Amino acid sequence: MSQLPKQPAEVSVPTSADVARLAGVSRATVSYVLNNNATVRISDPTRRRVREAALQLGYVPHAAARSLRAGHSRMVLLPSGHIPGGPLHQYFFEELQSGLRRLDYTVVQYGSIGLTADEAATAWAELRPVAVVVPPGITLTPHGTGILTRSGAKAVITLGPDPVPGAHGLVMDQRRVGESAVEHLLARGRRHIGVVLPQEPSRASFAETRLAGARRAAEAAAARICPLPLRYEEESAQQLAARWPQLGLDAVFAYNDEYAMLMMRALQDAGVDVPADTAVIGADDSLIGRLLRPRLSTVRMELAMPQPLAETIDRMVQHPGGPPVHHDLLRTSAVHRESS
């Protein structure tokens, strides 16, 4: 007869009272020190003693209890999903999270894949965050914004190509990327432009938006845009390059530098001269694109914020109830190199 393994003895969780006894101070002093309360004057030796006692005991403040005392949490929810990679977005989210930590917020990532827009908003609201930052590629509706604000979120911020009614909008309009690329190709005399679109679902929203920008720029010049679906595989690129003479294209704007490099190599292997026969431009301004021969033309993207995003979110939390604020963050510029 099998027996259940013995369960470990219950571990005693250290409390603020334990820290106070070890440091020889009151529990209020422990709270002031560990919550970085600057309104109460406490000497540096006392602060050090409290922190050393907390470290020795392994004491960690209880976030839920602190939220109850404050009337709101210090949690900023960052839903995660099919967020396209790239140096700009990686830098952006690293800066956001480190900036919020410096302001004593806790950043929590929440997996939202498989949920509808309103199901996701309801799930986020259950955690009672003080702010929600919805990244590109994740849908937020006006109804979802209402769910979050009624649950206590003081700031709901979207990062996407278009603002959502009722939410603050930090607009990263990917149409600008397609416009900058095509405007560059038009200036080089190209009029029959293929636009490489990743077939991977995780990149679909950005790809379609960049295609819309490419079409907008081409329309003004009566140029032709030809969408070119492509898997991120050598075989897929080779198959597309084999059809190149029938397509009648003299330029390619690829979704990003990775797809541009993949396409450029396939074209070269198929005997297409770059840039004489076909000009190629990507996006992201990656270092490896500068090391190719010919060097890869690209679209450089930068973020233009009046102040760090973490400080903007903190101001929204401190002063809720105002009208939604919209900032246009994305700045783009084409970088001309040998491939175009």
UniProtKB/TrEMBL annotation:
Pfam assignment, any one: Peripla_BP_3
Domain (HTH lacI-type): residue spans on this chain: 14-70
InterPro entries documented for this protein: HTH_LacI, LacI/GalR-like_sensor, Lambda_DNA-bd_dom_sf, Peripla_BP_I
SMART domains: HTH_LACI
Keyword DNA-binding: yes
PROSITE patterns tied to this protein: HTH_LACI_2 (PS50932)
PANTHER family the UniProt entry points to: LACI-RELATED TRANSCRIPTIONAL REPRESSOR, LACTOSE OPERON REPRESSOR
Official protein name in the record: Transcriptional regulator, LacI family
Source organism of this protein record: Streptomyces globisporus
